[in-house]
Amino acid sequence: MLLLRRCHSLTRFGPLNTQRHQLTPAVVLCAVRLWSSSSEDGGSYQRAHGPSWRHGLAGLLAGTGAVLAYGLHHHKAEQQDSSTVQTIEKTSAFPIISQEEVTTHRSLEHGIWVTFKGGVYDITKFVAMHPGGDKILLAAGGALEPFWALYAVHNQEHVLEMLSEYKVGELSAEDVKKQKTIKTSDPYSTDPERHPALHINNLKPFNAEPPPELLSDSFITPSAIFFKRNHLPVPQVDAASYQLHIEGLPGGVLTLSLEELKTRFPKHTITATLQCAGNRRSEMNKVKQVKGLNWGIAAISNATWGGARLRDVLLAAGYSPDVAQRAFHVQFEGLDKDVTGTTYGASIPLNKAVNEEGDVLLAYEMNGQDIPPDHGYPVRAVVPGTVGARNVKWLGKIIVSAEESSSHWQQNDYKGFSPGTDWDTVDFKSAPAIQELPIQSAITVPTDGAVVDRSSEEVTVKGYAWSGGGREVVRVDVSLDGGKTWQVAQMRSSEKGQAPGPSPPPGRAWAWKLWEVTAPLPAEAQELEIVCKAVDNSYNMQPDTVPPIWNLRGVLSNAWHRVKVEIREDDNEE
Amino acid sequence: MLLLRRCHSLTRFGPLNTQRHQLTPAVVLCAVRLWSSSSEDGGSYQRAHGPSWRHGLAGLLAGTGAVLAYGLHHHKAEQQDSSTVQTIEKTSAFPIISQEEVTTHRSLEHGIWVTFKGGVYDITKFVAMHPGGDKILLAAGGALEPFWALYAVHNQEHVLEMLSEYKVGELSAEDVKKQKTIKTSDPYSTDPERHPALHINNLKPFNAEPPPELLSDSFITPSAIFFKRNHLPVPQVDAASYQLHIEGLPGGVLTLSLEELKTRFPKHTITATLQCAGNRRSEMNKVKQVKGLNWGIAAISNATWGGARLRDVLLAAGYSPDVAQRAFHVQFEGLDKDVTGTTYGASIPLNKAVNEEGDVLLAYEMNGQDIPPDHGYPVRAVVPGTVGARNVKWLGKIIVSAEESSSHWQQNDYKGFSPGTDWDTVDFKSAPAIQELPIQSAITVPTDGAVVDRSSEEVTVKGYAWSGGGREVVRVDVSLDGGKTWQVAQMRSSEKGQAPGPSPPPGRAWAWKLWEVTAPLPAEAQELEIVCKAVDNSYNMQPDTVPPIWNLRGVLSNAWHRVKVEIREDDNEE
């Protein structure tokens, strides 16, 4: 029974539901894996990957007994990778068009044409509808393949169906032959290996989250299972030749090597939680479909970061308070780039960057080691209290500017809108770029659909709580009856069994709190609707329900978190 | 009809209800007053009070056409004042006790005895239940009268009933005679006159709020109708001899005269909204009774404040960054005091006080004039983004300290708790003192129970929105159907018709925004449930409903605000 109940927790990776008979396949799969794992003395994932994971996660796994499903991971990865790309039919009804002709259609005035697997498509009318914005124009007059290799989200049947509607011709055989000689190398082939415990939301670029029950086991999330949110391939950066450029200050451009960053500036260490703006998006998808990766509740993690203060580096580059008269933003550019050379970019307000209490780091350490490739090796921005998207990884350039970053991700993404705003009416200029995130909490244990035996008499509920802007979580309320009555959870801000550090100064509470409640099972209940809500020290609270905060990008999903748990009356079968 | 509908808006001062027939008396009263007011060329309240009000409010009143009910104000004031104090019965069944004997009972060990109107009461068992905390001990061994004169909240029948349960004797005739010769002068007799538009929640100390529809008419609230929240009598402060003491810094005590404060430090001006922690408490009272003044939605106002920066004064008094190694709070002491000499007090975090971007003022001007007596003449703290209670008025002393203020209001009041916490279980040490307030908004027009004629075809909804901590309001969503569908309101951050100033820097948006939506009346609806909710730039949102944020002190009431409006089909009677 214990095995069965633990395995239930994996079912959140499948469709969420509470009917037990539907859970059967997952339970069986889970049991098989548990057997295969234990029979091989630690499981195949440990053999497949290096000893660093084994070291970092040994205690973690012993503590949770969670099932880490390597097979599932590989299976899903392959599915997404090879995909459905071969399904477009050839038809001879279309005219033959030369690449030369295609190349003349690269403006809205002359039409936007692209080629894909030997077909020619006039996508002029589609440009305005493209979920990725006007980046689609980068492919104008040329082939889609290199872009789709980069954004694997396109490798889906409905995308191909949409494309087929715009077909206008066949590329000439000669040009097809030419195209084939330009080998499209996979820009993701050098991405690092990942821990098999991660649940993959997207393979290319890599986006994955840990199982919730692992998350709440460690106050400091091990780097290997820290959620990963990449927008582009992981760049290969050579630490010896790495350079960081700081621009826009009176001293001209300052260029620092990694060694200089480490030795010229004092090392500062903070423990800070990062959260993706899309964390818990899956709950918004249940209300009405949104655009974005279908994150569960674990696109959030907590780590200790070490590095130079951005403030110190800006001062060394010539920052003085009068700069703030003309400059209001600090832009970050990553070294990760797409085929056109466009890099990932974002910006933060200048006062966050230069304030002594802002604690913004140019971090080169994560949990006491070099930052791993997936998290920005060798240097990333850590902007505590601020949405993950501004914590730019593989940092190449810092620009002090009068303007926000002009990147797609700053201007036309990562913004919140009214539930009444749809893709026909949205004006991205009308909303501010997300910086500080609102109060958040979620239940990691038990998972939705779990079963509790009546004989256990009580239920233990665990979770995390965090707020943006350095606002400390001061209380978590937990309800077992859907929100009618509430009890206050116990919180901790250190590893289990360790004494908590001193309270953070006001406005500098960057780390989450883990919480726990053990309560008697209500005598009459056959099902529990467990709910949590957190309060921060500005007494902001989470909204009750999802629909009124629903937004077309599915960001900022911070309503009360709810899971349903079935109470099974004891029977005589065992 | 126009008159009738406007008068409806006054009914929120009575019990809130939506049934029209119950509103009749208020409507009649209102009509009578409107007649009497106009027949006397401006109304009696203008004659009764000086020309400054007439000047400040002329435009305001012309713009709203609101009815300002002077008679109502006076009637209620008298009711609260003369009250029910004479109702305790004499009985000869009790022993005669001397004042000397009473005086020996002033500790929990020996019992807590008090006298009231010739009776002797052993209140030992009541001490723990006293809503005002252990301040009740100040009366031990003596008479209650001077305390009750100060806290007029005691002048209620149920308080006297409670007291009568604790009666143990009659004070000796000789001692009663002695007591009578000590004339209890009313410490509130020198309180300033107030504007009759204010709705009085408590007369002594004075607590009052403006009618909501006046509130949303002015971006800057005229001082006369700015909500008043006094904890004690208004002190009489002589500007010429006024002294402000700054203690706890290496330079020793710095003492400044008003003139020095004005001339030694640059004058800094900010526009900042202040809100009482108890704003909208009446909505919590509808869920379950809480302790505190029954504020409507208007215990919030916006003004322009001028004064010296606290930061500059602390620097002049010897503050340097190393002080922050040992001190974490700045305490404020008011000059308002009770009969024992205990002054009003509160504290704020040191980093808010000294941060260049904290904008904390020692203000001597409100809306371009000397601060009026009710708002802290001659000097008050203005701590923008922070709950009203920390904006200490009639400022006498500033203490830089390792500790928070030890005052009742910092330690045992103005804190938030879980809805499951009651007076038997509350531990005031478990919650942080409220500082920054959460996101807030409310509908000022129309008021609950208003009637809209179908022929008007559309409805205009107005209100305010504000958030603490300098977080700018970025959106207000308005629903006419109870929260099912939403539209985005137009916001303004200046007086009507004036161009808004430049956007505040991040984290320094201290002023509210006024908002407005005009929408067609839904064709089928007979009633509208109008709802508003605001979003600030950390994307915090208001909770949906009141019960899950209910707390025993009724503070932090910031759920969606809801008003019901009846749509009347046109008929042939008019």
From TrEMBL, chains A, B:
Leading EC class: oxidoreductase
Compartments (UniProt record): Mitochondrion intermembrane space
UniProt keyword Magnesium, yes or no: no
Predominant cellular place of this UniProt entry's protein: mitochondrion
Species assigned in the record: Pogonophryne albipinna
InterPro entries associated with the record: Cyt_B5-like_heme/steroid-bd, Cyt_B5-like_heme/steroid_sf, Cyt_B5_heme-BS, Ig_E-set, MoCF_OxRdtse_dimer, Mopterin_OxRdtase_euk, OxRdtase_Mopterin-bd_dom, OxRdtase_Mopterin-bd_sf
Every Cytochrome b5 heme-binding domain range: 94-172
Superkingdom of this protein's organism: Eukaryota
Catalytic activity entry: sulfite + O2 + H2O = sulfate + H2O2
Entry protein name: Sulfite oxidase
Organism taxonomic ancestry: Eukaryota, Metazoa, Chordata, Craniata, Vertebrata
GO biological process, alphabetically ordered: nervous system development; sulfur compound metabolic process
